[in-house]
Amino acid sequence: MAALAAHTLGALHRVAVMPAEPAPERAERSAVDYYSPDARFSSEVNDDRVRSAQEAARGHADPRGIVARGERVWRELRPQLDAAPENRVVRTRHGDAMLLTDFLATRVVELVLHGLDLADALERAPWTAPEALAVVEGLLTERADKEALARTGLSGLRLVRAATGRELPGDPGRPALAGTGVHDLALG
User: Fold this and answer.
1) What SUPFAM superfamilies does the entry give (predicted)?
2) Continuous segment of H or E residues that includes residue 66
3) What is the SS3 assignment for 91?
4) Per-residue model confidence as pLDDT tens digits over 115-166
5) Segments making up each domain of the chain, as ranges
6) What gap in Å lies between CA 13 and CA 49, rounded to an integer?
7) What angle do CA 176, 182, 188 make, to 5 degrees?
8) Which of 85, 101, 178, 180 is close enough to 148 for a disulfide, judged by CB 3.0 to 4.6 Å?
């Protein structure tokens, strides 16, 4: 669990260094397109993610250290985000030029999905903020057939779980979303 928490924190830390980097001329990838299956989600890149998270976790014998680091990153990040222009373009570690707002949506996806993973591992109720859940649900359903989706009866957390393979026992999974146009995220 410490490695997962460290990986999740890394999703925020990457945003903290972006404002100091040169801005690409224009955005080339949206938040939805970020999760397309390509080299960013290859076995090699996924293995590197796992190794990096394990190394980061080893640096914190006490999980409270990861939490404290997260709080520091957020305190540093918040003023930078408040000062950033709305049309700020950033470059991801994979070379994608994206609007900062779109990249932030991908970080919210990371926080929500891995927050679910941590909650499930700890056998606790998810602590997902409604605003964060709305970002993820919106990204998943941006190109969906709203009528077909409504017929599934899935929304909110149940929809996010089904769409990302995190459904609870007895709940519908990804097959329930067939034909709805819900985005199938490529995830590492």
Assistant:
1) DinB/YfiT-like putative metalloenzymes
2) helix 63-83
3) strand
4) 899 899 889 999 999 999 999 999 999 999 999 999 999 999 999 999 999 9
5) 2-29+36-99
6) 14
7) 95
8) 180
